[in-house]
Amino acid sequence: MLLGQILIKEGFCTDKDILAALDKQQHGDSRFIGEILISDNVITENQLKRALEIQFGTYKKGLLSPKWARVWCSLKKALFQ
Question: Of the candidates 53, 44, 52, 49, which has an alpha carbon nearest to the alpha carbon of residue 13?
């Protein structure tokens, strides 16, 4: 499931919020959609973290393939530290 779909399903934002963030990306904003939504005060960091946990699964050593474990750790480091 796409991150935007999760954010909408969890009630963290609306489809209009996602479309506005995607429009910014299409017009040259190179940030991740979650970063755009946070900077626009649409969602909180905790809401983004929750949505990413739903999307990728809460990382626990050995439960994700090495590739997805690296992706998850990189995202957490980039967004939350």
Answer: 44
